[in-house]
């Protein structure tokens, strides 16, 4: 099967998420904030120079960098897509890191104002 046709984890979980009651401008802002925070934290993890942090991302970024500097030993992958060739699904975790006390972990960063029940399902624990 062509990997472009693999089912993405977010597609599977998407049926459990309903954004229809969120105003479009609020949803657009949250989407933009999440994309920017992900780009900033990915850059930081890859030791890329970051010229300016938008004020609305600063709290997320500062929280991430403090946590990262304290707990991360080594960056293994950043935004890498992985494919399961048995069940034909794909996923792209934000980070796979070696942590000081937990060993190797998969991190899926979240930036919303509220918790979503699908988050636990997005992490394939085996």
Describe the structure.
The protein has 126 residues and is α+β, with helices and mostly antiparallel strands. The protein has one domain (3-122). Helices cover 36% and strands 20% of the residues. The protein is built from 3 helices and 6 strands. A 3-stranded mixed sheet has the order 1-4-3. It has a 3-stranded antiparallel sheet with strand order 2-5-6. Helix 2 (24-45) packs parallel to helix 3 (55-71). 10% of the residues are buried. Residues 119-126 have low confidence and may be disordered.
Mean pLDDT across all residues, rounded?
A: 87
Total domain modules: 1
Radius of gyration from CA coordinates? 16 Å
Oligomer: single chain
Termini Cα gap? 24 Å
* Number of continuous helical runs: 3
Largest sheet: 3 strands, mixed
H and E string: EHHHEEEEE
What is the element layout, followed by pairings?
Layout: E1 7-8, H1 9-14, H2 24-45, H3 55-71, E2 72-78, E3 82-84, E4 89-91, E5 95-99, E6 103-107
Parallel strand pairs: 1-4
Antiparallel strand pairs: 2-5, 3-4, 5-6
Helix pairs in contact: 2-3
Features:
single chain; 126 residues; alpha+beta; three-stranded antiparallel β-sheet; 3 helices; 6 strands; disordered C terminus
What is shown here, in short?
The chain contains 3 helices and 6 strands, in the order E-H-H-H-E-E-E-E-E.
């Amino acid at each position: 099967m062509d990997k472009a046709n693999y089912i993405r984890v977010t597609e599977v979980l998407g049926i459990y998420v309903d954004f229809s009651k969120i105003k479009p401008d609020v949803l657009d802002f949250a989407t933009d904030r999440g994309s920017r925070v992900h780009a900033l934290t990915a850059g930081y993890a890859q030791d890329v120079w970051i010229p300016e942090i938008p004020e609305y991302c600063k709290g997320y970024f500062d929280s991430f960098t403090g946590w990262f500097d304290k707990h991360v030993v080594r960056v293994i992958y950043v935004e890498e897509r992985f494919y399961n060739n048995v069940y034909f699904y794909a996923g792209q975790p934000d980070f796979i890191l070696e942590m000081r006390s937990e060993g190797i972990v998969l991190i899926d960063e979240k930036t919303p104002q509220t918790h979503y029940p699908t988050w636990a399902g997005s992490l394939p624990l085996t």
